[in-house]
Amino acid sequence: MDIVRDLMLVLHFVGLASLLGGFLVQMKSRTKRVEAAMFHGALTQLVTGLALVGIAEAGDADVNHMKVGLKLVVLVAITALVLVGRRKESVSTGVWGAIGGLTLVNVVIAVVV
Ligand code: HEM
């Protein structure tokens, strides 16, 4: 199970890189859009995050329920913005900023809580 957990954690970081990378590369662009990388990153975070919780619950590892609960709520908001925006030619700077900002909020929750 350790190898599966390690693999899920690695993919969890790949999902984070994809979501945040799709945001960061547009820093200087006049028009902002929801990149495919952001969509796939959000879904990867959801699948790997839930898998990590499941693996921890199945073993004897402790799960910080408040932490994962907070991250899940934030990710649901990110995913909603990504799903609405991905079909559009462009999104407002506010929507783009909210996706990146909320992703950073989840990194802070992961590190601090
Ligand atoms: C944008 C969304 C997310 C980001 C940026 C993110 C970020 C991170 C980071 C940086 C870590 C490594 C640091 C740590 O161990 O705490 C981590 C670990 C973890 N994340 Fe997330 N996360 C996200 C979403 C989620 C969601 C939705 C869940 C569960 C529903 C989740 C569950 C976990 C678990 C269980 C770990 C600990 C792995 C372990 O040490 O065994 N994450 N996450």
H and E order: HHHH
Instruction: Give the oligomeric state.
Output: single chain
First-residue to last-residue Cα separation: 25 Å
List the ligand species: protoporphyrin IX containing FE
Global structural class: mainly alpha
Number of discrete domains: 1
Q: What order do the helices and strands come in, and which of them pair?
A:
Blueprint: H1 2-24, H2 36-58, H3 65-85, H4 93-112
The structure holds protoporphyrin IX containing FE.
Describe the protein in words:
With 113 residues, the chain is mostly helical. The protein contains 4 helices and no strands. Helix content is 77%, strand content 0%. It has helices at 2-24, 36-58, 65-85, 93-112. It has one domain (2-112). The mean pLDDT is 97. It binds protoporphyrin IX containing FE. The site of protoporphyrin IX containing FE has 20 residues, from helix 1, helix 2, helix 3 and helix 4.
In short:
This protein has 113 residues and is an all-alpha fold. It has 4 helices and no strands.
List keywords for this structure.
113 residues, mainly alpha, 4 helices, elongated, binds protoporphyrin IX containing FE
